[in-house]
Design a protein that fits this description.
The chain is mainly beta. The chain has two domains: 10-62, Urease, subunit C, domain 1 (Roll); 66-101, no CATH class. The chain has one helix and seven strands; from the N terminus they run ββββββαβ.
Length: 107
């Protein structure tokens, strides 16, 4: 079992809808993560071996990351600025998130 503030060395994500255009995957799959990296992707119940943790992803989408193409960076207050910076941070260890800033009106 992983310590409270550390991520597990291995995690099996089970039964999620994996979308990975780079590897042409769009199906229900299991995904094994070891040390924060994808070690294996396979059809459900085909990954063998033990893992420290399992996560039931049925009904969820599992994807390598997203690019948010609708971000308003013209925030006016310090609170809004802090919220924006917080929103840009990945919510899971090893996750990535990118923002694309587009100017929508002239000032």
């Amino acid at each position: 079992m992983a310590h409270e503030n550390s991520k597990p060395a291995s995690l099996l994500i089970k039964g999620g809808h994996v979308i990975d255009p780079a590897n042409r995957i769009d199906a229900l799959m299991d995904m094994l993560l070891r040390d924060g990296q994808v070690a294996e992707v396979a059809l459900p119940n085909k990954i063998r071996g033990s893992t420290e943790e399992k996560f039931d992803a049925r009904g969820l989408v599992v994807a390598p990351g997203f690019i948010d193409l609708h971000v308003h960076l013209l925030e006016r207050s310090e609170l809004q600025r802090r919220r924006l910076l917080q929103a840009r941070q990945p919510q899971l260890p090893g996750a990535s998130r990118r923002c694309v800033a587009c100017r929508t009106r002239s000032r």
